[in-house]
C-alpha cells in the first residue's frame, strides 16, 4: 500500500523514536499499551461505563467474527443529530472536553500547547475499546486531518501491540459525536479488511 509523503514522514519519525509527547502521570513510553489496558480495567470495574462487556456471546460465521452486544444499542449515549459529512463543531452539544476525569485514561501534550486525550469508551464494543481524541482542546469536528492522523500513527507505533486496531467513523457513518476522535480496539481476530485483495487502478 502506498502512503502519501506526509504519512511516510510520520512513520519514519516514529521509527526513529523522535517523539515529542509529554505524558501526564506517565513516563514510560515503552509500556503505553499496558498503561492503557490497566487504566481501562480500573474504569471498567467502576460504574463509569454504561454497561459491562464481560461474557459477551461471540462466534464465527464463515470468515466473519460475530459478537452479540445488545447493551451497545440500548444503553449508549443518544447520537448527535448529524445531517452532513462536514458539519461544523457545535460547542453547545456534548463533546469530549466535557467528559469527567474518571473516563480519562491518558492525557498527553505536544508543542505548541496541544492536548491529546485517550478516554475509555463508556459504551464499549469490547474490552479496551477507547477513544483517541487528537487536539481535543481545539474542538475540531469529526473530519480526518493530517495532523490528527500523524498523532494516531505515532500512538500506534508507540504501542507496539500486534492486536491493536485504530479506526475512524465519519459523520453520517455512525459517528455519534461531532468532535474529532478515533477508535482504539484490541482485537485478536483478523479483520476481513486486513486480507482483502487490492485492485490496481
From TrEMBL:
Gene Ontology biological process terms from the UniProt entry: glucose metabolic process
Residue ranges occupied by any GDPGP1-like N-terminal domain in the UniProt entry: 35-184
Gene Ontology cellular component annotations, sorted alphabetically: cytoplasm
UniProt superkingdom: Eukaryota
Coiled-coil stretches noted in the UniProt entry, renumbered to this chain: none
InterPro entries given in the database record: GDPGP, GDPGP1_N, HIT-like_sf
UniProt GO MF annotations: GDP-D-glucose phosphorylase activity; guanyl-nucleotide exchange factor activity; hydrolase activity; nucleotide binding
Pfam family, one: GDPGP1_N
Listed name of the protein: GDPGP1-like N-terminal domain-containing protein
Amino acid at each position: 500500500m502506498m502512503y502519501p509523503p506526509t504519512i511516510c514522514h510520520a512513520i519514519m519519525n516514529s521509527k526513529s523514536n523522535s517523539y515529542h509527547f509529554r505524558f501526564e502521570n506517565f513516563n514510560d513510553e515503552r509500556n503505553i499499551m499496558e498503561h492503557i489496558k490497566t487504566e481501562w480495567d480500573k474504569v471498567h470495574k467502576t460504574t463509569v461505563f454504561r454497561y459491562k462487556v464481560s461474557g459477551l456471546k461471540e462466534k464465527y460465521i464463515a470468515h466473519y467474527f460475530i459478537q452479540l452486544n445488545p447493551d451497545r444499542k440500548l444503553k449508549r449515549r443518544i447520537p448527535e443529530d448529524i445531517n452532513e459529512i462536514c458539519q461544523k463543531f457545535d460547542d453547545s452539544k456534548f463533546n469530549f472536553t466535557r467528559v469527567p476525569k474518571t473516563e480519562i485514561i491518558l492525557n498527553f501534550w505536544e508543542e505548541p500547547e496541544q492536548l491529546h486525550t485517550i478516554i475509555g469508551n463508556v459504551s464499549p464494543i469490547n474490552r479496551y475499546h477507547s477513544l483517541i481524541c487528537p487536539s481535543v482542546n481545539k474542538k475540531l469536528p469529526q473530519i480526518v486531518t493530517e495532523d490528527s492522523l500523524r498523532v494516531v500513527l505515532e500512538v500506534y507505533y508507540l504501542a507496539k501491540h500486534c492486536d491493536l486496531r485504530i479506526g475512524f467513523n465519519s459523520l453520517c457513518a455512525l459517528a455519534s459525536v461531532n468532535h474529532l476522535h478515533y477508535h482504539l480496539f484490541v482485537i485478536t481476530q483478523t479483520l476481513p479488511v486486513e486480507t482483502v485483495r487490492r485492485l490496481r487502478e
